[in-house]
Amino acid sequence: MRLNNLGIIRTNIERPDPKDVARLSQFGVATIHEAMGRVGLLRPYIRPAYTGAKLCGPAVTVLLQPGDNWMFHAAAEQVQEGDVLVAGCTTESEDGFFGELLATSLTARGCKGLVIDGGVRDVADLEKMDFPVFSRAINAKGTVKATLGSVNVPVVVANALVNPGDVVVADVDGVVVVPRELAGAVADASQKREDNEESKRQKFREGVLGLDLYGMREPLAAAGLTYVEE
């Protein structure tokens, strides 16, 4: 009987429709987060390792042990074209789990980037390769290969639950997780929100104030807001 989910590699995960992933890739993290009802965000300490990094793809999840990147090498075999690696750790660790060599290996497999609640290094090389990475820290400290974790099990990454096959979207505003089974519906909701915002954007260009566009004057007055001419 297993007492935990360590030492497991699931080789056959269900991925979302690639068309839905492509649609989600057209929207920013903030739009998707709002469209889902303000859920799904990773904690804001997960930041792009270099300016301009962005990614979108189904998650191949990795559960790491602190200071040990063994499972990244195991995970590389499970990556398919368009996937994103999403890595959590059994406890907090900011060691440099990931660098240019692993990125080179993953690029050959079609991987579109990494989100990790841990540290990465070789950032200048990652930027040259245009391999998007979002991480907890940048840290030159290396890791060992000695302790089993798992691949394609549910992981908690920066307070967000990520299941294998969920769509992960990341840009300069943060990282959001879209449940695999909701990818199409969230893409629809994001498009609707984007269309609505474009309508508002045009009104703002025309000089309409938010006070009037959003009907704020009456509730502000009811709350006791007073204009004083002196």
Automatic annotation (TrEMBL):
InterPro entries: LigK_PcmE (IPR014165), RraA/RraA-like (IPR005493), RraA/RraA-like_sf (IPR036704). Coiled coil: none annotated. Its EC number is 4.1.1.112, 4.1.3.17. It catalyses: oxaloacetate + H(+) = pyruvate + CO2; 4-hydroxy-4-methyl-2-oxoglutarate = 2 pyruvate. Transmembrane segments: none annotated. One of its GO terms (molecular function) is 4-hydroxy-4-methyl-2-oxoglutarate aldolase activity. It is an enzyme of class 4 (lyase). It comes from the Bacteria. Pfam families: RraA-like (PF03737). Keywords: Lyase. Signal peptide: none annotated. Its cofactor is a divalent metal cation. NCBIfam families: ligK_PcmE, PRK09262.1. Belongs to the class II aldolase/RraA-like family. Homotrimer. Catalyzes the aldol cleavage of 4-hydroxy-4-methyl-2-oxoglutarate (HMG) into 2 molecules of pyruvate. Also contains a secondary oxaloacetate (OAA) decarboxylase activity due to the common pyruvate enolate transition state formed following C-C bond cleavage in the retro-aldol and decarboxylation reactions. This is Putative 4-hydroxy-4-methyl-2-oxoglutarate aldolase. The lineage of its organism: Bacteria, Bacillati, Actinomycetota, Actinomycetes, Micrococcales.
